[in-house]
Amino acid sequence: MNVKARIKWDLNPQRTAVIVVDMQKVFCAKDGALYVPHTESIIKNIQQLTSTARQANMPVIYLRHIVRGDGSDTGRMKDMYNDTDEIFKRGTDGVEIIDELAPLPQDIIVDKLFYSGFHNTDLDTILRAHDINTIIICGTVTNVCCETTVRDATHREYKTIFLSDANAPMDYPDMGWGDISAEEIQRITLTVIAYEFGQVSETEEIIKEIKFKSSQTQSLPIN
User: Fold this and answer.
1) What is the percent of the chain where pLDDT is above 70?
2) Is 131 a catalytic residue?
3) DSSP characters for 93-126?
4) What is the dihedral of CA 183, 185, 186, 188, to 10 degrees?
5) Residue 223: what pLDDT?
6) Res 108 pLDDT > 50
7) Backbone angles phi, psi at 69, to 5 degrees
């Protein structure tokens, strides 16, 4: 296969939003039903990113996986996780965003029923209402809800930026082809996204770019 250059979008803070995927207690708390240990290592980066985005007046959007809990809206998700109705039940503590990343009043929360942030939600409407054409994806799980949201965003013509050090993977047990470590999942997912779907960058790089581009905008003379 031919090696090709990695994509690098021209980030415009005025048309860019941050999407924080499923940083809920069910995934991030040690006693969570679907605890992903690697979420602990990405919290600081997401904190710094969302703080920078707010200072630049960029929308910060939180995705939460939430269901009604009566089995009427889980669909195929229940086939894969038969306790979905309890794990993601609206009104339970586990579906809330962790305290370290608690949304601020100006932030936007979008609840979803399945993996993608776009599936049967108003996320696309929200982004277009804010004239957004670029989204920065962070959260968990790297190759499930985060990657699925990237793929759906690309199909909708958004420019996607996936953060290599602010998306948390998980280990997978042997399902017939051997165990797969979280580190291997991360490496493969980052490679696939960088080759097929969008930009992959470190958080610090994106924060520096947001600050630089914002300072340029603020320094422009008013006609």
Assistant:
1) 96
2) no
3) GGGSBPGGGPPPTTSEEEEESSS-SSTTSSHHHH
4) 120
5) 46
6) yes
7) 100, 0
Predicted confidence band of residue 101 (pLDDT cuts 50, 70, 90): very high
Backbone phi, then psi, for 24, in 5-degree steps? Answer: -100, 160
Q: Rounded to whole angstroms, how far apart are CA atoms 212 and 11?
A: 10
Q: Which residues pair with residue 157 across a beta bridge?
A: none
Query: Which amino acid is located at 11 in the chain?
Result: L
Question: Which of the residues 73, 145, 146, 152 is marked catalytic?
Answer: 145
The answer to whether residues 158 and 201 touch, using CB atoms and an 8 Å cutoff, is no
Identify the DSSP state of 38.
G
Q: Using alpha carbons, select from 44, 36, 40 the residue that is nearest to residue 65.
A: 36
Q: Which residues of 66-99 are buried (b: 16+ CB within 10 A; e: fewer)?
A: bbebeeebbeebeeeeeebbebbbeeeebbbbbe
pTM as predicted: 0.94
Q: How far is Cα 104 from Cα 94, in angstroms, rounded to an integer?
A: 19
Query: 3-state secondary structure string, 1-12?
Result: CCCCCCCCCCCC
pLDDT tens digits along 127-163: 999 999 999 999 999 999 999 999 999 999 999 999 9
Q: Out of 112, 138, 146, 159, pick the active-site residue.
A: 112
Q: How far is Cα 109 from Cα 119, in angstroms, rounded to an integer? A: 15
Catalytic residue flag (residue 22): yes
Instruction: Please count the CA atoms within 13 angstroms of the CA of 186 that sit on its side-chain side.
Output: 17
